[in-house]
Amino acid sequence: MNIYFQNIRAINSIQNLDTHLNIWVKDGIIAHCSKDTPTLDIDTRIIDASSMIASPGFIDLHVHLREPGADNKETIQSGLDAASNGGFTSVVCMPNTSPDIDDVTVVEYINSKAKGFLTDVLISAAITKQRTGKSITNMLSLNEAGVVMFTDDGVAVSNSEVMKLAFDYAAPQDLLLAQHCEDHSLTKGFTMNESALSYKLGLKGYPTIAEEIILSRDIMLAEYCGNRRYHAQHISTKGAVDLIRSAKAKGLRVSCEVTPHHFSLSEELLASYDSCYKMNPPLRRDQDIEAIIEGLADGTIDCIATDHAPHSLHEKFVELENAPNGIIGLETAIGVSLTHLVHSGKISINKFIDLFTVNPRNIIGKEQVLIDSGLNANLTIFDLNEEWTVDKTKMKSKSTNTPYHNHKLIGKQKFVFNNNQMIECSL
């Protein structure tokens, strides 16, 4: 690994950095990072990077690696190959595996399987044992084992008493609780967002209020229990954005994420009955999309996460009502977000980078990544203006359930560096 990026734009808000530099990465180290021109080794690969941007390595707080238990959909290896090809140097894996990540032994298993890859795996564990919403896991032991966040992702902790106990249990170590916000009594058997369109199509709907009821309850519990740390996962409605905005205005320690599909795709696509548009939470209305984009622009929404949810072909491509929820997203997140947020003029490139780097690391309390000479290279390098067409057959994920196949995007990941490794992204 010996590569020189000539005249690349380097951006990192932590360093108040936004300027064109010459960056030389050699043997996993940033050997040179300045406007000066170094004397390069004869075997150095030189790249004219005037159209590229170097940022701290991107991190995704919401990824389903499926292992253990569902390696027909994804394995830790294939998921991390997809992550690095998508431009991510870190991912947080979700606990809805089989067995669930509710015990230190499962954490140890994942850590052992995730060694040696370019992309680091951070682990979220369940709030309740077997994610049943009944008994609290040993969060303190799991935290000692390195778990960065607790969530029953895929299902909400519906019982308010159990959620209150979880906040109280998390208090001594100030642990982070996260929630898939869904009142399941309102969503059983849903296929899409509840709206005039769902009635027209004859499909069971998921009302927006089902998300907002749990989110509102959790915000109140977090405040009542002493202003505890709380993260709302993949919010999708205007009401949810408003609730987060109000909580932050009160000084509560609440954060949230949104997915690229929830600000780039709408419920209208379900009229095709294509299961690649079926997910949880479902695609929403235009006013929800507008509210999400506004929340990203004004800082209400902290970060973008993919909710990468691979499913095998035979599972996903059945009748829409019977198909599982979820899509893959690691390898399209940068292109979709640049196309729909930056190139549309909704947010700046600087804010875009913060949404994938600084903010998510702040949420889970991880050390920030710096770009400077002598430091280990943890970098995501992308071309802001490269146009490309998504081809699911070129993806590294084991599954191909993407709604973006054949979509034309502007902006593409190019190189990723971490752990003394480099890949040149191929899509």
Sum this structure up briefly:
The chain has 427 residues and is an alpha/beta fold.
Q: How are the secondary structure elements laid out?
A:
Blueprint lengths: L1 E11 L4 E10 L2 E6 L10 E4 L3 E5 L1 E6 L12 H10 L2 E6 L10 H10 L6 E6 L13 H6 L4 E2 L9 H11 L6 E3 L12 E2 L2 H6 L3 E2 L1 H17 L5 E3 L5 H12 L4 E5 L1 H5 L21 H13 L4 E2 L8 H4 L16 H10 L6 H8 L1 H7 L14 E11 L18 E11 L2 E4 L3
Parallel strand pairs: 1-4, 1-5, 6-7, 7-8, 8-9, 10-13, 11-12, 13-14, 14-15
Antiparallel strand pairs: 1-2, 2-3, 5-16, 16-17, 17-18
Helix pairs in contact: 4-6, 6-7, 7-9
Keywords:
427 residues; Urease, subunit C, domain 1; TIM Barrel; 13 helices
Query: What is the typical, i.e. mean, pLDDT?
Result: 98
Q: Give the class-level CATH name of the largest domain.
A: Alpha Beta
CATH architecture identity of the largest domain? Alpha-Beta Barrel
How much of the residues is beta strand, in percent?
Answer: 15-25%
According to CATH, the fold-level topology of the largest domain is: TIM Barrel
Q: Assign a percent range to the helix content.
A: 25-40%
Provide the low-confidence segments as ranges.
none
Broad shape = globular
End-to-end separation in angstroms reads 21 Å
Largest sheet: 8 strands, mixed
Number of DSSP strands? 18
Structural class call reads alpha/beta
How many domains would you count in the coordinates?
Answer: 2
Counting H and I runs of at least 4 residues, what is the number of helices? 13
Radius of gyration: 21 Å
Q: Superfamily at the CATH H level of the largest domain? A: Metal-dependent hydrolases
